[in-house]
């Protein structure tokens, strides 16, 4: 017999038991735990060799702790080990079997009757005795303590999620009935927190307490416990004792459907598109959790504030997990909102949620109307099979309705994803805001026209007006873009034009700063309109004239572009030189400085070159004392841009020297002067020794570049350290600017202080984008949020460069700047 078992042992390990489990050592590792006469061992694969973990003589204590989801955690205290051995087991019975088996081996090895199993709140006699017969009622006073001992206390072994959301029924006071749901009534109530704060809540009740109905009712609470999004209704708590209650946030504006009906004359398209966008963001979050909602409609959306809605009612929501779809059993479903595959085959996917979202957006744009209200449920599928879809609502933007029709594609694979929908609807929302701003401007113009008509006609002028004036005769102020005025001197008034250089080849600094110019109506009669029809006709002619002018400007810009490309080919190989000349109208004592701009930046300016990626064109430039720094958010700043003479040198000349200015009678505008607006801003070549502003800007740019390089490798919870370093660098920059600000002229302080506020806004935007990236770390919007975060950081770096340019310009004006040493 012994020989038989020895032979059998070569083919089957009958003296060992194998348990699938996970070793918890900071992370979870799936292994097979082998328990036998040779101790406790583990192996990662069935065919691999077992690795020794512990001997039974080394085990001092075993403890089993229940976990969430019916799992259990075994903790083994091993003599000589630095930390305990933690084993995660799928079920409590398996953990009990493992614990009893290890305890038996320990008793045999140590030749003792003492058990190594540790059960809290039980003395030795209780551990060796059978448990009492359960009565069905939980008695909290039945906890035993050791005689004469007060060191034991009761440990709540319920899952943490249950403890977190479990609340006392006495802390809730029910009010009126808000409505009736599928399982029972929904009440208005007040929840009193432990700190005494009172919160308005909605309480869902279940009138049928049978186990199967109770399970379906509680499924909504189980799902809501895991959701945390700004546009999803928040779960307050659960009362699991009969009658079961689910307590959620209550919003004073109620359901979105009723809100749309009551305020349909007040809500604008901007607000309606915003509601659709917020619901879509919530669905992106659910899609990232592999969840289908299955009941997306305005009746299940609550209005938290006039500009914020939240998705709720997760009674039909299900996890789709690895199968990518959920097949519904027999239950009540919203047919008129469902996709064809959901109606025909009870198949629910993220694509079917996309269909339902488009129907919900149609409800929103229709003012709360029910879809297919003219059809019965049984007739809806026939309409869908024939390709008939919901009509376009009256005030729905065409771009949004086009998205709806894409969402209603019969083939689920042709429907857009929620991530794509968020981007597209954001564009529609932005477009609606721009159109509303344009309508406001039109209304303001109309008001000016009617106000003008109500006044008595002024005395006609005997002086013939110039072609372009500052205002229109009917009070219409059409402001042209500064870029258009800069690109075409004809748009500026001829009487205000000044030559950038005088006969002495020096820059004349104007006393007053450049102003925006308004487009006049030289070809129109200057007679005041005496009727509304005349004013309207005059306005139409003015609009046509403006469009013709803009079209001519566009053609001129295209010709300039072709000419510029031709000139750039001729200028290859030349060097650009920067020359500072003392203007006669400003008391400055700067010597003339001529320096060649190297094709590659120095090492200290490398981070700035990483920000400004535009190619530089070789040209011979003569840069005088700057008049104004033009700063545009989101684009490279142009330093020394305004009123700068540009003297192009012959590309075939032997030297890169600047030709003197021609005499006055020969001083004519060049045929096609190149525009500095297309070039990046060069950093002024000044003495940077002990320049705190310059050093702070360089440090800030380096930190932004470091953020760009590290963001792809770090986890979202580590973004805070990167953004914090950017904030510290920005604080140093602002402090350095504050130190130098009192030494500058009062006229330039406003511009620098405005740039400081812009930097603070950029930092707030970066923090906002970081929080958005952290919130969408598990959704499909993860990469898009990272791009937005990098764009915000890039804007911050660009504006810091603008700050340096503004400070340098102010130093030159105040005669505080020193040229860089050769």
From TrEMBL:
Residues 1-113 form the FERM domain. It is an enzyme of class 2 (transferase). It holds the Pfam family PK_Tyr_Ser-Thr. Residues 432-454, 663-674 have a biased composition (Basic and acidic residues). Keywords: ATP-binding, Cell membrane, Cytoplasm, Kinase, Membrane, Nucleotide-binding, Transferase, Tyrosine-protein kinase. InterPro entries: FAK1-like_FERM_C, FAK1/PYK2_FERM_C, FERM_domain, Focal_adhe_kin_target_dom_sf, Focal_adhesion_kin_target_dom, Kinase-like_dom_sf, PH-like_dom_sf, Prot_kinase_dom. The keyword Nucleus does not apply. ATP binds at residue 204. Residues 432-465, 650-690 are annotated as: Disordered. Its EC number is 2.7.10.2. Residues 172-432 form the Protein kinase domain. One of its GO terms (biological process) is signal complex assembly. It catalyses: L-tyrosyl-[protein] + ATP = O-phospho-L-tyrosyl-[protein] + ADP + H(+). It is found in: Cell membrane; Cytoplasm. The keyword Zinc does not apply. It comes from the Eukaryota. One of its GO terms (molecular function) is ATP binding. GO terms for cellular component: cytoplasm; focal adhesion; plasma membrane. It is a peripheral membrane protein. CDD domains: FERM_C_FAK1, PTKc_FAK. Belongs to the protein kinase superfamily. Tyr protein kinase family. Fes/fps subfamily. This is non-specific protein-tyrosine kinase. It comes from Parambassis ranga.
